[in-house]
Amino acid sequence: MGVRKVRAAETEAALKESARRQFAERGYLNTKITDITAAAGRATGSFYEHFASKEDLLQALLADMHGQAGSQLDSGAHDLTEPGQLRDHLAAAWNVMRDNRSVMTALFESAMAAGPASGALWARLTQDTAVFREHLEYLRERGHQLPGDPALIAAAMGGMLSMLAYALLPPSGASGPAADYPDQEILDSLTRLLLFGLAGPQA
Question: For residues 173-199, b (16+ Cβ closer than 10 Å) or e, as one string?
Fold first, then answer.
């Protein structure tokens, strides 16, 4: 890789890391592009060499989150009615949310600002829960009776998980209610709750 490409990669990484810090400290809506570039020690013009807008940068951070989540999950269909497999999927999602608190908050703020009529929140839920949907479709194809349409149930699972993470996971260094609930208790509770709905009595 040439020197120019190395520097470009370093600048992009610095802007992303700065954005994470600024979103945590200021909130997504209150963060300006100049805040991000100043904290990264980069010229404002360098931002537009990598991202078209603040929303574009947020989408890049979301793609990084998806990559992190994908690396923690095995490929292929899984049986979410099996407690161990369900818990593994929930744990992977929870760990990614914990590692990306500021991005989670920014995504939530962005979707809320757009309003329900924009469809942004639903689009994000369906996109972010594609893996859950695929596993639920796998169950349905095997004759398992689900409590509803796979896309709807997957989005409901994702909405519950993301809202819980938003409520329980404070920014790094801040105190919050999550300290009262260890990860193991949270994941065990979620697994039991969802397992009851997914693996309940069949008609």
Answer: eeeeebeeeeeeebbeebbeebbeebb
> Is residue 61 a contact partner of residue 16, using CB atoms and an 8 Å limit?
yes
Q: How far apart are CA 167 and CA 97, in angstroms?
A: 12
Q: Which tokens in the block code for residue 159?
A: 């909405």
Non-local CB neighbours of 126 within 8 Å, separated by 6+ positions: 133, 151, 154, 155
Of the chain, the end-to-end C-alpha distance in Å amounts to 60
- Separation CA 82–CA 191 (nearest Å): 10
How many Cα atoms are found within 13 Å in the side-chain-facing hemisphere of 175? 1
pTM across the whole model: 0.80
State how far the Cα of 63 lies from the Cα of 29, in Å rounded to an integer. Answer: 20
Q: How far apart are CA 7 and CA 14, in angstroms?
A: 10
- Side-chain-side CA neighbours of 109 within 13 Å: the count stands at 17
Higher per-residue pLDDT: 68 or 148: 148
pLDDT digits (tens, 9 = 90+) for 23-78: 999 999 999 999 999 999 999 999 999 999 999 999 999 999 888 877 776 556 67
Residue type at position 184: Q
CA atoms of 45 and 166, how far apart (whole Å): 33
